[in-house]
Fold this protein.
Amino acid sequence: MNALSLTVVLTAGTACADPFGPPAAYSPNDPVATIGEVARPAPTAGVVPGYPATTYPAPGAVMGYQVPPPDAPAGLCEACIEPVRKPFQSDHAFDGFIGPVSNPVLAKDPRSNSYARLLFINNNLPGSHPLDGDIQAYALQTNLALTERLSIIADKDGYAHISPRRGPSASGFLNLAAGLKYTFYRDVENQTLAAIGFLYEIPSGEAKVQQNQGAGSFAPFLTFGKQFRENWHYLQTTGYYFPLQASQGSSFIWNSFHIDRQIGWFYPLAELNWFWYTSGGNRLPAAFGEGDGLLNLGTRGQAGAHLVTGALGAKAVLNKNYTVGFAYEIPLTNRHDIINNRLTVELIGRY
């Protein structure tokens, strides 16, 4: 075996031991730098198998990748080329997931995300409802990922317009709601994660659109996500919504289920939302029915009532930062409350 063949064998056999680390005494005129008996590649642009092309930096430098110290032991190849998370960056280890669409205030994405979500909701009231007519809402939801597990959530705000067929219309601001979410289980290899969190709804909106009642509401929740069969994703959120002043709102347990199938950039989806009311308020007669996380009417006689809705829709991933989606939702129980049919449209910018 000649010297050139020996050099090639030694270089190929040890390339993963430390793809970045040129020796201190490296000379740009030498084709190969050596440390002891181990040959190492020259610090020129190259490709590490399974990872994007990059230029090997000097020891200790950071160029979008973590770099081992000069005295790091061999065998740390994967750790050496793991991307460095930028401040407030979303958790990109689960980029195959998309969030839920319907039940937009209370159905949660278990990932730690930084995003802005523009929402338009058109809600048709049942013909038998005292208001009849339509309700439109325009909202901006925001999340801020403090770490890859902890995020600040602000999932209710915006402006609502109630236009009954009989009687005057009303427009006004919705309450604000914010809280925290912590991803306590995060299995990247099996694409499984779970998070716990809460929302506090501040009575900051306008009474003419059924907001700003009592001392606000509290909503703790648990959310779970799982990828299966490579391209399928399942999400579920379970929580309990209750007003701090019982007479001013209804309390309920909710379950929101989501399933989608990834077909390249396109995600058809189906969702189911179940609301189980445990108590009612004293603000409106029972004939008005009840709302959800978007509008809580505080109607009387709600204890023991159930509302189940189903939604079909889709999302499109426009690029790595933007998605657009919609869901069309109808009640599946005889009880409709304020929902006859509801269209939810979203645009998400995610960092």
The first strand starts at residue 33 and ends at 35. Residues 1-84 form one domain. Residues 3-13 form the longest helix (11 residues). The radius of gyration is 27 Å.
